[in-house]
Automatic annotation (TrEMBL):
Residue ranges of every copy of the Acetyl-coenzyme A synthetase N-terminal domain listed in the record: 59-117
Gene3D superfamilies per the UniProt record, alphabetical: 3.30.300.30, N-terminal domain of ligase-like (3.40.50.12780)
Name the record gives this protein: Acetyl-coenzyme A synthetase
Catalytic activity, EC: 6.2.1.1
Residue stretches making up the AMP-dependent synthetase/ligase domain: 125-512
Keywords: ATP-binding, Ligase, Nucleotide-binding
Family: Belongs to the ATP-dependent AMP-binding enzyme family.
Catalytic activity, as annotated: (E)-4-coumarate + ATP + CoA = (E)-4-coumaroyl-CoA + AMP + diphosphate; acetate + ATP + CoA = acetyl-CoA + AMP + diphosphate
Record GO biological process: acetyl-CoA biosynthetic process from acetate; phenylpropanoid metabolic process
Enzyme class per UniProt: ligase
Statement: the UniProt record of this protein carries the keyword Lipid metabolism: no
Length: 690
């Protein structure tokens, strides 16, 4: 892609910049000597930088690296702490040779995230400001809560939870759709020091049970049903089965608090177990609207969130209170250039990390107005997002490349029909945003006015690690640009040598940051092995990355056996184990393949049990097995029959070959002579249905 052919080039504006690097970049543009995608620069529009929170980041970044303790404690001082931290702001050991991996920030200090998000903002005079602007599945169905009202709702639930015996440190599983009650439940747990574990309401009963068995919650909070688009999903049924399954595994959950969602399902139609199940509406409103805060150590756990790894069992990523609070609040503020007049909408579900850090905690800690949307972004039609933007005058829209690509395909008229004048910043997360989707978002949605914050981060990192700061530097479509304050990335080769300058390799981080996860729940050893052993001395992200000649970072996707399907992390091993649970499946190997809308699609090679023959019905029932085991979002896009799988003599499946077959690059199969049985490759090709 050259400058001359790009659609955004005519709209480029130049900003004055004090730094040498920026001047050099300006020169590249002015010289018109643009050769590749790496050279395309998009500058903030005139006037944007003048009003931006950070217009020259160089000094601030330098300070954050040279004096992290000073930098972060100054920011932390803007929050409320019951007792302050001591001399030692943080301690870290990221080097397995030096002993146990530890990351601690503000240890010994006491605070409460819920207090900082709600009470503190109300005390500052913002009690009447809208905290949550909710939009239901059906257009016209909406509701809102001010900061004071939100606090009251949270306190009532906190009091209820305390009343049924939930104490500091107890786990609570939340399995809910995007109702206001979902962030309310998270905050209510945080207020009393309970550890929430939100499970995305698209996960199946098996996955939910697995998470319940792992974290042994005292209560589950759910909702009877939800409407998404035209579908009704009966969540309570899924929870019921999961609780039966958990009980079989020795985990008995005493309370299932169920929110009645009358627009989806009446309570009379909901299956019920007396003694265990309680209607939210019957009990919670009876409690007091004030609730004492439980003051927590900064290093006490705030939540667990399960995520996929390269081996079967999901990992319980554990975040603690103090550092996560400071980090989500600060990254939100700077990466979205947040001003108190902003109306912010993040399309993510609270079941994923994005919904934790950038629907609930980050924005509310900043006293922002947050739009929470229950429905599907393409219902009743492809214009729904822009309808919501206009309706609430959304100024910051944070979304995912997969949604951008699907809207892009449905035609510009769905966008241009709406004004979108309120928008000033756009954001992207979940996977690398391809330059063409970036340009469409920039030109069509943002009318070439709105910088795009392409934020790179992970469940493990708690908040953004590499992200543009709008107004501070020019962007390159498809690049997450530069590290956030306090973050020192390193790109290393296979041997763990740090590469300098222009390079590509494995993306690692050299130091800790306040929002980093502290462990994998119940498995510190797996934490060390997965993240700190691959490259000694570094946190390893699992992503590949390239740094260009101007220092911009370009994420190139996962380098482990984790797929990224519509921005959702799915382990190949998880899908394989779901397939193998099918009685007629003997063996399965799964790879990710390029997919126009989803980013990656799931491609499964399946070997059947002897004597079973291929059929379309069997294909369907294999897909169904995955839906049951994991959830609909993990359903394979393709099943490829495999009489045998390409294995080395030691029995290891050669995924490299499978990836080539799946992506039809048959002339790039490479060396197959090391296979135990090279003829399986020909058999596989013969059975391709393309
Ligand atoms: C990918 C989501 C490129 C990446 C916040 C990472 C991205 C994984 C980006 C984490 C981005 C996320 N550019 N890749 N802006 N954002 N990723 O834990 O592969 O669900 O490792 O966290 O998503 O997914 P997770």
């Amino acid at each position: 892609q050259t400058m001359a052919t790009s659609s955004s080039d005519r709209r480029l504006h130049h900003v004055e910049s004090g730094s040498g690097r920026m001047q050099r970049l300006n020169a590249v543009v002015l010289g018109e000597s643009i050769a590749s995608e790496e050279d395309e620069l998009v500058f903030p529009s005139e006037g944007f930088s003048e009003q931006a929170l950070v217009s020259s980041h160089v000094q601030m970044y330098k300070r954050s690296i040279e004096d992290p303790a000073g930098f972060w404690s100054e920011i932390a001082s803007e929050f409320y702490w019951k007792t302050k931290w001591g001399e030692e702001v943080f301690t870290e050991n990221l080097d397995v040779r030096k002993g146990k991996i530890t990351i601690e920030w503000f240890k010994g200090a006491t605070t409460n995230v819920c207090y900082n998000a709600l009470d503190r903002n109300i005390e500052a005079g913002n009690g009447g400001k809208i905290a949550i602007q909710w939009e239901g599945n059906e257009p016209g169905h909406d509701a809102q809560l001010t900061y004071s009202e939100l606090l009251e709702k949270v306190c009532q639930l906190s009091n209820y939870l305390k009343d049924i015996g939930i104490r500091k440190g107890d786990a609570v599983v939340i399995y809910m759709p995007m109702l206001m009650e979902l962030p309310i439940a998270m905050l209510a747990c945080a207020r009393i020091g309970a550890v929430h574990s939100v499970v995305f309401a698209g996960f199946s009963t098996e996955s939910l049970a697995q998470r319940i068995v792992d974290c042994k919650p005292k209560a589950v909070i759910t909702c009877n049903a939800v409407r998404r688009g035209t579908k009704v999903i009966q969540l309570k049924d899924i929870v019921d089965y999961a609780l039966v399954e958990s009980a079989k595994n020795g985990v008995l959950v005493g309370a299932c608090l169920t929110y009645e969602n009358p627009s989806a399902m009446k309570r009379e139609e909901t299956k019920w177990q007396d003694g265990r199940d309680i209607w939210w509406q019957d009990v919670v409103p009876k409690y007091s609207t004030t609730c004492e805060v439980e003051w927590m150590d900064a290093e006490d756990p705030l939540f667990l969130l399960y995520t996929s790894g390269s081996t079967g069992k999901p990992k319980g990523v554990l975040h603690t209170i103090g550092g996560y609070m400071i980090y989500t609040a600060t990254t939100f503020k700077y990466a979205f250039d947040y001003k108190s007049s902003d109306i912010y909408w993040c399309t993510a579900d609270c079941g994923w990390i994005t919904g934790h850090s950038y629907v609930t905690y980050g924005p509310l800690l900043n006293g922002a107005t947050v739009v929470v949307f229950e429905g599907a972004p393409t219902y009743p039609d492809y214009g729904r997002c822009w309808d919501i933007v206009d309706k609430f005058k959304v100024t910051i829209l944070y979304t995912a490349p997969t949604l951008v690509r699907s809207l892009m395909r449905s035609g510009d008229e769905y966008v241009t029909r709406y004004s979108r004048k309120s928008l000033r910043i756009l954001g992207s997360v979940g996977e690398p945003i391809n330059p063409s989707a970036w340009r469409w978002l920039f030109n069509v949605v943002g009318d070439s006015r709105c910088p795009i914050s392409d934020t790179w981060w992970q469940t493990e990192t708690g908040g953004f690690l590499i992200t543009p700061l709008p107004g501070a530097w020019p962007q390159k479509p498809g690049s997450a640009t530069f590290p956030f304050f306090g973050v020192q990335p390193a790109i290393v080769d296979e041997k763990g040598n740090e590469l300098e300058g222009e390079c590509s390799g494995y993306l690692c981080i050299k130091n800790s940051w306040p929002g980093a996860f502290r462990t994998l729940y119940g498995d510190h050893e797996r934490y060390e092995t997965t993240y700190f052993k691959p490259f000694t001395g570094y946190y390893f992200s699992g992503d590949g990355c390239r740094r260009d000649k101007d220092g911009y970072y370009w994420l190139t996707g996962r380098v482990d056996d984790v797929m990224n399907v519509s921005g959702h992390r799915i382990g190949t091993a998880e899908v394989e184990s779901a397939l193998v649970s099918h009685p007629q499946c003997a063996e399965a190997a799964v790879v990710g393949v390029e997919h126009e809308v989803k980013g990656q699609g799931i491609y499964a090679f399946v070997t059947l049990v002897d004597g079973v023959s291929y059929s379309q019905e069997l294909r369907k029932s294999l897909v169904l097995a995955v839906r049951h085991q994991i959830g609909a979002f993990a359903a394979p896009d393709r099943i490829h029959w495999a009489p045998g799988l390409p294995k080395t003599r030691s029995g290891k499946i050669m995924r490299r070959i499978l990836r080539k077959i799946a992506s039809r690059q048959l002339d790039e199969l490479g060396d197959t002579s090391t296979l135990a049985d090279p003829s399986v490759v020909d058999q596989l090709i013969a059975l391709s249905d393309f």
